[in-house]
Amino acid sequence: MHPIPRASALDDLRSRIRRDLETLAYPTPAWVEPVAAPDGTVALDCAVIGAGQYGLTLAAGLRRERVERIEVFDAAEPGREGPWVTFARMSMLRTPKTLTGPDLGLPSLSFRAWWEAQHGAEGWEAMFRIPRTAWMDYLNFYREALDLPVTNGWRLTSLEPVEGGALLRLGFETTAGPRRVFARSCVLATGAAGSGGFSIPDWMAQAVPADRVHHANHAFDPAILRGMRVGVLGAGASGFDTAVAALAAGARSADLCFRRPALPLTNPRRWMENAGYLAHYVDLPDARKWATMHRLLSIGQGPPKPTYDAALATPGFALHPATPWDSIRWTGGEILVEGGGRRFAFDAVIAATGMRVDLAERPEMAAIAAEAALWSDRYAPPPEEANPALGRFPYLDRLGAFTEREVGRALWLSRVLTITRGATLSLGPVSASNSGMKYTAPRLIEGVKRRLFLDQEAATWRDFIGGDHTELAREAVA
Ligand SMILES: Cc1cc2nc3c(=O)[nH]c(=O)nc-3n(C[C@H](O)[C@H](O)[C@H](O)COP(=O)(O)OP(=O)(O)OC[C@H]3O[C@@H](n4cnc5c(N)ncnc54)[C@H](O)[C@@H]3O)c2cc1C
């Protein structure tokens, strides 16, 4: 058997994609009216912030729906969007290889088609889970094959309503200085930290010199840990991945400590990956959504099994349940940690302490945070489900748009949608992940289209009433 030459196989795939897009192009007429911006330009129909998997998929989907004045902006360099080749350290994705989403229903646009074009059907069968960097390569191919309008190196720093809330003014920081763009709608697809952040806890950062403390979700080269005794706090997937990456890069040991008495052995998120749950979590009553997320947070989420197995098989790795860090001290030469009745000496420590949802932490969300409803504004849980962290999640509508805290004060919020971790209480626990994209991306696309269509509803009515809709020539009357 001869291997398929990679370049020509991908060229064939590009042709298949073009053909499939043509086949499913219905309906083709343009329908979104241009709207003038205050600076004399035509406003974008939609500005998508973030060119990760979601931003690209939303752009592709909006274009198929003939929303054409779109632009995707990303702070990162081309090819380095999202976590995949920056701070993600697992060897393969954590979710099953069969997931779909970016393809928006087109087989030729799927990861599987891209993989099989290069490795054949046997290559697909032989693969257990999608290699992490292959996922980034696929996203790069997707962007290029669809010729998506992406501008890299632009960081959104502000988003405000103008023209009485009919338009949004977006402020960007770019290498060429500040820039301004007007748009009729905006989707913030800014990733796992996009509605808050990850940071090293203050008590850790203050106790230890900056070059000896890192966050598992920050980009750093694990080679800086060569020869070191590394302490990791937190037993989520990223904690395990960072411990394994440190050992692979030559760290002397990696001790992973966590507060719970044992690792969570269950992962109901996998169970939720069925067509009913993924599509209709959004339709559940608030009380059920809250209870679901509260329970998921209480159960916790351990690493995927392959990650766990890899860690336990790596010499130098040790797991310490029931070991919160009660004290941490820099002696001038090493870091002394005490917790759970144990004492450790480390050369470097890693916070694998997860991410927060808090709109106030994101400068680009300042105007949104001032007006948007949070879950704490809309729902009071029973005392046994009290959870201030969940209360800070934005209360989104079923298509992913922010809603007003005080009705009638900030209607412009219906122009701003988000798919970040903060969206998960409203839209579904895995809605912001690869495994939820198949259902969430079409919902957001519908949200943008709804806003644009309702904006021009009066003009559409006038066209209906006053337009020339002749289909037949008038009959000749004898
Ligand atoms: C380490 C890690 C591993 C994960 N592994 C899996 C997995 O295996 N399976 C799974 O289902 N899910 C996984 N997830 C969850 C989820 O799928 C990912 O977070 C995924 O990257 C989300 O895609 P996204 O497009 O929403 O955001 P991202 O891929 O993070 O892209 C967001 C983009 O927004 C840009 N951006 C952010 N702020 C701004 C701004 N102000 N202005 C301009 N650009 C901005 C960033 O530069 C980034 O490129 C993982 C998450 C992490 C953090």
Strand content: 15-25%
The CATH H-level homologous superfamily of the largest domain? FAD/NAD(P)-binding domain
Largest sheet: 5 strands, parallel
Low-confidence stretches: none
User: Average pLDDT across residues?
Assistant: 96
- The name CATH uses for the topology of the largest domain is FAD/NAD(P)-binding domain
Strand order of the largest sheet: 3-2-1-7-18
Count of individual helical segments: 16
Structural class based on helices, strands and sheet pairing? alpha/beta
Rg over CA atoms = 25 Å
Number of domains: 2
User: What is the level-2 CATH architecture name of the largest domain?
Assistant: 3-Layer(bba) Sandwich
**How far apart, in Å, are the first and last alpha carbons?**
74 Å
Residues in helix, %: 25-40%
CATH class of the largest domain: Alpha Beta
Bound molecules: flavin-adenine dinucleotide
Give the CA-based shape.
globular
Total strands: 18
Describe this structure in words.
By secondary structure, this protein is an alpha/beta fold. It has two domains: 295 residues, FAD/NAD(P)-binding domain; 118 residues, 3-Layer(bba) Sandwich (FAD/NAD(P)-binding domain). It has 16 helices and 18 strands. The chain has a five-stranded parallel beta sheet with strand order 3-2-1-7-18, covered by helices on one side. Strands 9-16-10-11-12 form a five-stranded parallel beta sheet, covered by helices on one side. The protein binds flavin-adenine dinucleotide (FAD). Flavin-adenine dinucleotide binds next to helix 2, strand 2, strand 4 and strand 7.
